Amino acid sequence: MRLAFLGTGSAFSLERYNGAVVVDGRLLLDAGAPLLPHMHRLGIDPGAIEAIFLTHFHGDHILGLPPFMFYRGLQPTVPLTVVGPPGVEEKVACLLKFAWGDEWPEHARSMDLSYQEAGRAGEAGGIHYETVKLDHGDLECRGYRLHLEGRVLAYAGDTTATPPLDDLVRDADVAITEATGPGRIDVHTSWEEAHALAARHPGTRFLFNHLFAGTTPGAAEDLATVDV
């Protein structure tokens, strides 16, 4: 399993790019900006992305989509499925129409594009996934368990460290979860909570993202590729 971290920062980090992870060159987890130049730097073909899994609709998780999606309509690409919380098609289409105006609906028709609202489980990009509803303020937020050749990758966007987060990572081979900063942080997971989570699940390899400033053991770095 190859994980390419296009960005590992929180929304307002001055040190790190907004979060996005490419799995095995074909699955995109969240879509913080920028996507295209970072994929190019890491040798990832944007046209090879088969599915995008969005955890929620905050800007630092979706604002890489407008240039990425327009690029997809200009180049020969594989079919693309966008998975997200309820309302994903309306939310993403609204963002893209705001970015590109009347060009977007016509452009979208040139793509093999589909949307899936994330229920308890589904299929996208040739893999089976399960979801867990996570706690992130009043937002509809989903974590994903991706089944990849007999292994499970658990992925959380933003969430407090409540029991659903433990449910998400339980028995996973690899987990990518947030560790925003030290001390208690409203609607987010702190460094201390992230390490306590990892200690409760010693059989899982943890990689932390969504850092505001500085670093903590286990944190991924921007533009790093990790084989796990």
Q: Concise description?
A:
The chain has 228 residues and is an alpha/beta fold.
Task: Present the secondary structure layout.
Layout: E1 2-7, E2 20-23, E3 27-29, H1 36-41, E4 51-53, H2 59-62, H3 65-74, E5 80-84, H4 88-100, H5 103-108, E6 113-117, E7 121-124, E8 127-134, E9 141-148, E10 151-155, H6 163-169, E11 174-178, H7 191-200, E12 205-209, E13 224-227
Parallel strand pairs: 3-4, 4-5, 5-6, 10-11, 11-12
Antiparallel strand pairs: 1-2, 1-13, 2-3, 7-8, 8-9, 9-10
Task: Please explain how this structure is put together.
This protein has 228 residues and is α/β, with parallel strands linked by helices. The protein has one domain (2-223): Metallo-beta-lactamase, Chain A. Helix content is 25%, strand content 29%. A hairpin with a 2-residue loop joins strand 9 (141-148) and strand 10. The radius of gyration is 16 Å and the shape is globular. The model has no long low-confidence stretch (mean pLDDT 96).
Provide keyphrases for this structure.
228 residues; alpha/beta; Metallo-beta-lactamase, Chain A; 6-stranded mixed sheet; globular
Which sequence of strands runs across the widest sheet?
A: 6-5-4-3-2-1-13
CATH superfamily: Ribonuclease Z/Hydroxyacylglutathione hydrolase-like
From the helix content, strand content and strand pairing, which structural class follows?
alpha/beta
Number of helices: 7
Rounded radius of gyration (Å): 16 Å
Mean pLDDT: 96
Question: What letter string, H or E per element, gives the SSE order?
Answer: EEEHEHHEHHEEEEEHEHEE
How many domains comprise the coordinates? Answer: 1
What level of helicity do the residues show?
Answer: 10-25%
Shape: globular
